[in-house]
Amino acid sequence: MGTYFKLLRIKIALAFFFPFVLGLSVAATADTSISVPKAISAIMSFFFASFFSSTLNFYSDVEADRIFSGVFKDMDLKNQPFVTGDMSRNETIAAFSVSLILALTLSLLAGLKVLIYISCFIFVVGFLYSHPKIKLKGRPLTDILCNILGMGLSLFAGLSIGRANHPSVVYLIWGALFVAIVYIPTVVNDVPFDQAAGFKTSGVVFGAERLLVSMIPLTLIMSLLAVVVFLDDSLVWQFRLTCLALTPLTILGVIVIFFSWKPPRINLNPDIVLVPMYFADAFFLAFSFYKIIS
User: Fold this and answer.
1) Element (H, E) at 266
2) Contact 126, 56 (CB under 8 A)
3) Does 89 or 223 have the greater pLDDT score?
4) Residues 6+ apart with CB under 8 A from 115
5) Are the C-beta atoms of residues 251 and 237 closer than 8 Å to each other?
6) How far apart are CA 289 and CA 180, in angstroms?
7) Which tens digits make up the pLDDT trace of 6-63?
């Protein structure tokens, strides 16, 4: 059972869960017809989709993970199941097949739109990002773009559970910049191992230092957009609140990252970023079920 829990890669799954549960909270506020079983089915489909995607990521990254070392990850990748040999051929086939079938079936039970967005999430975060024949995670810019698109699809999967107010284009751009800024430090810390594995990630192609510096203009633009979003009365409070809370935290995080940059790595525990996101997950999840039940 511990092997399968490692395959889920819960810390990363919970990070992708944040936009999903944010969308669910918006849907639950706008649509009083959402049932508890429908919400639970959608949530379970998300985690099976995450399991499939992270398992494919592990499967295709054995070469890089064998030589990985460092704290800026959710786990010690040298202990991932495909590196240690804990997964047999039959177990691997079963893990992919069962998780994919359950993700699609449970999402369909939650609604056709949920199925569409969960399927797209699997395609982008699973196949496009990690499949050995495609592997956009090993190419410049597309490694970052896949994460941005994956987070966006997670948001719309949550929104699609009910009749919800959709975010503005400005909010989506703000969110894309937020995801890029949060993801860039992981790309930077992976540069030595990606180079050794032959990957051409954004960090390898553009250089770790340049990629870190790019966070400064991205953060400035993100901050300006946050003001526009917060002043937009037509948006639901959830979207405005995330801008209000996450923008100053992002600015502070970028400052801390630059102080923690000791080439060739950033000496910073990722839990500093992940743990606050888990509290946000819990808040929006609790609020969603409060609205659904009441």
Assistant:
1) strand 265-266
2) yes
3) 223
4) 104, 107, 108
5) no
6) 30
7) 888 899 999 999 999 999 999 999 998 999 999 999 999 999 999 999 999 888 887 7
Counted domains in the chain: 1
Give how far Cα 3 sits from Cα of 51, 81, 126, 204, Å: 12, 6, 19, 31
Place of tokens 């502070």: 252
261: enclosing H helix or E strand: strand 261-262
262 forms bridges with which residues in the sheet? 265
- Look at the chain and count its residues: 294
In angstroms, how far is CA 159 from the centroid of its own chain? Answer: 16
Domain of 32 in residue numbering reads as 2-293
Q: Tell me if residue 139 falls in helix, strand or coil.
A: coil
Count CA atoms closer than 13 A to 205's CA, side-chain side: 12
Q: What is the distance between the alpha carbons of residues 62 and 52, in angstroms, rounded to a whole number?
A: 16
pTM to 2 decimals? 0.94
Asked if 129 and 57 count as a contact pair (C-beta separation under 8 A), the reply is yes
